[in-house]
Amino acid sequence: MRFTKMEGLGNDYVYVDGARETVRDPSRLAVLFSDRHLGVGADGLILILPSAKADARMEMYNADGSRAEMCGNGIRCVAKYVYDRGIARKENLRIETDAGVKDLRVFTSSGRVTRVRVDMGRPELERGKIPMKGPKGRVVGEPLAVLDRTFRVTVVNMGNPHCVTFVEDVDAFDVAKYGPAVERHPSFPQRVNAGFAQVADRTHLRLRVWERGSGETLACGTGACAACAAAVLADLVERSVTVHLRGGNLEVEWSEADDSVAMTGSVREVFTGDWPAPE
Q1: Which residue among the candidates 77, 163, 220, 225 is catalytic per the annotation?
Q2: Most buried by CB count within 10 Å: which residue of 109, 116, 163, 181?
Q3: What is the CATH number of domain 127-258?
Q4: Is 163 a catalytic residue?
Q5: Is the pLDDT of residue 277 over 90?
């Protein structure tokens, strides 16, 4: 099976062209591919498939084999794959996901995509749409008991669910301890991505994310968008911010005009290889 490894700010996935390859059990394949010792090493698997209503369809599986609705870094890499390989060689692309069709714009150098801007759509703020247990309404700065601490959390769905907590020093924060506890907190029936953000100033955020089904990653595009929305709701930042993640920076803007969030960042192809047929 032919595959390509790509990354957006170190958030790496294995990509398979579903129009050319047959993938019978993508959940199991995601686990095998993602193993960083016995496999390729990745945060998950993304299938690139034909679409009846867009230029391509993206189907995503986390490192533990669970299905995910959307990935901001992943969809930027899909755009690069689609453009660079001539599946749809145009500046403005539409990619179908489990969270709907997303509009993207590619930026090229020497005929290859280097950066991609994604219209991530409107952030969903209603508790039931996250989903999160509890009364109707938005969850902004609500207390959440996690292990030995109580966090003030804001929950946002950016195509997938995020729980954002603001901390004083994100580099020193114990993400490995609290991340999985937030991810599997009883309040979230479908689990949740746990974001821990630090406000540097009115136009800069620092962020680490424990991703549902994959653990802490070097970057999370939907997480960066959720953190921006949460910080704007708390009047901590302006609507246009640079989000600094361990793998690099993302430019995020929450438009006041149409309420949509746009995210721009770099993409890179790492290598292409052949996965052996199962024994």
Answers
A1: 220
A2: 163
A3: 3.10.310.10
A4: no
A5: no
